[in-house]
Recover the amino acids of this structure.
């Protein structure tokens, strides 16, 4: 009986240790977010939720939304997801207009940009915008690969 009690207590302690290790925050004290690789440097995030080195002029994103995730794949490739107030029919054209204003060219052939993924090119660069409606907001997902 005593052995079973000790084994049970040991199991609970080990289980709590595993749960505690899994619930740690990836956010650093300087506002950056860890990449998951313990040896990787922590990116500094700006108030807009994007990495400090994100090329805002070359690949502008819709402003006023909440960035919900960012993945940087080197210095020239980003995946960004954000929530923006408004329906896709009004938000997606704004996203496309911002990129075309920065020199990107629309490659998709749809008259309603909210209905399909938008593909834009900037020389050898590629931007893909997908969307989904979430109540009175739109979730925009950008994949940006710079030339």
């Amino acid at each position: 009986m005593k052995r079973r009690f000790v084994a049970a207590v040991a199991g609970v302690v080990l289980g709590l240790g595993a749960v505690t290790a899994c619930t740690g925050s990836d956010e650093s004290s300087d506002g950056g977010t860890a990449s998951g690789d313990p040896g990787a440097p922590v990116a500094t995030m700006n108030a807009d939720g994007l990495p400090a080195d994100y090329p805002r002029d070359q690949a502008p994103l819709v402003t006023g939304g909440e960035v919900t995730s960012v993945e940087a794949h080197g210095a020239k490739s980003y995946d960004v997801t954000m929530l923006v107030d408004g329906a896709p029919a009004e938000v997606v054209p704004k996203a496309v207009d911002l990129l075309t204003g920065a020199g990107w060219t629309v490659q998709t052939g749809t008259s309603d940009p909210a209905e399909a993924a938008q593909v834009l090119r900037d020389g050898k660069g590629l931007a893909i915008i997908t969307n989904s409606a979430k109540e009175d907001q739109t979730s925009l997902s950008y994949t940006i690969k710079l030339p």
